[in-house]
Amino acid sequence: MIQENQKGFTLVELLVTVGIIGILATITVASLSGTRTRARDAQRISDAKQLAAVLDAEFSSNPGDETGTALEGCTTAGKQLSSGCTGPGDSIKDAFSKFKDPKAGLAACGTVTVAASTAAAQCGYTIASASGAGAPKTGDYQLCFVLENDGQGTYKKGMNSIRSGTSGAPAQGCL
Asked: Crossing angle for the helix pair 35-61 and 90-98, nearest 10 degrees?
């Protein structure tokens, strides 16, 4: 005996529904693929601006000579902030120990072209004097960081920096 009032879905209806869900999932994943890298880049820019503000505040309250006070533990150009850069004040020591690149410990952040050679750019924040040639001071520094994408205002993919005396204005590249 065949019942004419069966309730439920046919196999074709179920397959069509699963197909539509698959298409929507693919579209969603494709549209969100760059979100993580953009979020990491935004974090890097925010961190660099905050670090610059800490250095500028320390320079204002304790100017030392005309270029500021030397940063302890940062005796060479290009020193990673996470590897020993400290004071002269506790605010700098605290700030430098808290800021870590959002991709630290993962693969390189991309490639950077310097002097016509391309190399893998490491994630992380580095600091040097504004000229790039010596040890940084509270009033003479450039904070360098790598962005994974274009499109963060005036910042571009690759190496970027914020230098002392620029009120946190970005610069492409790092000297």
From this structure: 170
CA distance 56 to 62: 10
Asked if the structure places residue 71 within a domain, the reply is yes
Determine the pLDDT at residue 63: 66
Whether residue 51 is contained in a domain is answered as yes
Average of pLDDT values for 143-169?
A: 81
Euclidean distance between CA atoms 70 and 149, whole angstroms: 33
CA distance 104 to 69: 29
**Tokens at residue 119, please?**
């190399």
Closest CA to 131 of 107, 161, 152: 161
The range of the structural domain enclosing residue 143 comes to 36-172
Task: Please say whether the beta carbons of 82 and 125 come within 8 A.
Answer: yes
**Reported pTM:** 0.72
Helix segments in the chain, DSSP class H: 11-32, 35-61, 90-98
Q: Is residue 140 in a domain?
A: yes
| pLDDT on residue 23 | 96
Q: Is 127 helix (H, G, I), strand (E, B) or coil?
A: strand
Q: Which residue has the higher pLDDT, 12 or 37?
A: 12
